[in-house]
Amino acid sequence: MTTLITEPAAQAAPAPATVHDVPPVLPVVGADTLVPLVDGRQVPYANLDVAASAPALQAVADRVSRVLPLYASVHRGAGYLSQVSTALYETARRTVGTFVGARDDDLTIVTRNTTDSLNLLAGCVPADPVTGERGRVLVLDIEHHANLLPWQRVTDATVVTGGPTVSATLAEIEEELRSAAVAGRPYALLALTGASNVTGEALPVADVVAAAHGAGARVVLDGAQLVPHRRFSLAETGVDYVAFSGHKTYAPFGAGALVGRRDWLDAGTPYLAGGGAVRRVRTASTDWHEGPARHEAGSPNVIGAVALAAACDELAALDPRAAARHEDALRRRLVDGLGEIDRVEVVHVWDDAVDPVGVVTFTVSGYDPGLVAAYLSAEHGIGVRDGRFCAHPLLGRLGFDAGAVRASVGLGTAGEEVERLVSAVRSLVDEGPQARYDVVDSLWVVVDDPRPVPEGSGLEGLLATAALGADEAFGCLPDDL
Length: 481
Ligand SMILES: Cc1ncc(COP(=O)(O)O)c(C=O)c1O
Known about the structure:
By secondary structure, the chain is α/β, with parallel strands linked by helices.
């Protein structure tokens, strides 16, 4: 059977009453960083926005520091360090591919991020062999814009509205794939999220792959929220392509990846035109490379690739069950703790989703999501995301056009941060905010905010804030933890 490696036991365990003492799974850089509150105190930053960008694993930062002295021009440099750097880059590529279970003939292309990877693939979807028309792509309305707009712009995309349950949504996908094939207009590709960036939910990959392959379509998984949270294997699941981002995978050094089947990528229009992607250039003709180089014109991001590979090494060495247990305990505490508070609604797409990743979106009735996020930052030192999360169609369908608040957890999240959020939202509902807030230039801000304005502090001022350690903070945690 093809499955994602998940932790079924964690599903069965009762929801924890508190996760206050749950430690992070792995050390991340900056976990002790202090931020100012409006009441003059400083507290360790509770980074509950890791679904947007995750902090670097300490091991990733260490690897980058070790590699930097060896850094030199790659691929075309004759110098010794150029050769070392080239080898580092190509080794990193192999590590990244292996981490997501690349098959022998798959390509691993180093990109900037998931958006870049999906745009690249969109340009490689082959035209219909009979009609010569643009290749057809099927996509659900639950997707992040990165997994919607590239298909709409470059291919012939059909957007299917998901149903209220996983099984209803699967049935819709199967029916659409089948009827398109019967009508002689088969889909070339099904583009699906590995985990929703709004709710962490996902469709069962094995069922989706079976339906798509049965109708002659390939599958690309948007792995932006999946790969940092679950072990995933192309070879085991049969998924054809996966796209993901280093900055969400604890390696914020500007690299991401697209991994998958070679034929489309070798035949597709090179993503970028420029040096490194070509074998031979004449003024009237160009002979393009095949393989990853075809789509990686320009000087590659060696440090980004090395960092991403370091993150992959760390994640591969983790016990997946321990990591899933940690994340699941934090997620369920968020869902249960927030769900118990009057006027709080936790968003979900499906009634029967299993094993969502650590992303929890909610609203607090009577409070604009932007105000909730500003309050959490100003009065509790908590970073969350508010808005529509680049998933406008889904938020609209679920009735949250005014947006929502999203908290997300990862390997570096401590239970204390989750408890702080639950307690802060309860205080908001019970007592209201302590500071005054107003909208300025469409953003909720504190009126007469006493905190230093980050952009006015200059580099040294900003660095000084970050240099303070947790020891200095222990006396001044909020009382309401
Ligand atoms: C599910 C999903 N897909 C795609 C993206 C785009 O990722 P990136 O901004 O790294 O390209 C995101 C980012 O939040 C995401 O959560």
